[in-house]
Structures are given as structure tokens and as C-alpha cells.
Amino acid sequence: MSKVIDGKAIAQSLRNDIKSQIDELRKTHPTFSPKLSIIQVGAREDSSVYVNMKKKAAKE
């Protein structure tokens, strides 16, 4: 039997959990600021789109 999962809902839930964890950390460490590091090899357009999507998600 197969089961359909809602990837968008799961991803949103994970982002909300991470945001909550960051908010908790900032209560005790007000200057805490998470960082996103990306190493992109080459200049493929599809890779650049993916990287930009990750940057946008990280800002949320």
C-alpha cells in the first residue's frame, strides 16, 4: 500500500521548528545570527536558481 505525503507541508513544518529554535536561542544569546554557506562550482543556471531559492528560504 502506498502513502501520499505532502512534502510542502513537511518542509514548512521543519522551517517553523527551526525558526522556533532560533527564537529560543536569541532569548539567551541576543546576538546569535545563523549563517548559510554555499559553495557553488560552475555557473549552471539551474544551480544558480536552486541556490537563490535556498537563500530566500533562509531569510524567512
From TrEMBL:
Entries under Pfam families matching the protein: THF_DHG_CYH
GO cellular component, one term: cytosol
Signal peptide feature range: none
An example molecular function term from Gene Ontology annotations: methenyltetrahydrofolate cyclohydrolase activity
Sequence ranges assigned to domain Tetrahydrofolate dehydrogenase/cyclohydrolase catalytic in this UniProt record: 5-60
InterPro entries: Aminoacid_DH-like_N_sf, THF_DH/CycHdrlase_cat_dom
Stored Gene3D superfamilies: Leucine Dehydrogenase, chain A, domain 1
GO biological process, one term: tetrahydrofolate interconversion
Ranges annotated as spanning the membrane: none
PANTHER family with a match to the protein in the record: C-1-TETRAHYDROFOLATE SYNTHASE, CYTOPLASMIC, C-1-TETRAHYDROFOLATE SYNTHASE, CYTOPLASMIC-RELATED
Protein name: C-1-tetrahydrofolate synthase, cytoplasmic
Originating organism: Lunasporangiospora selenospora
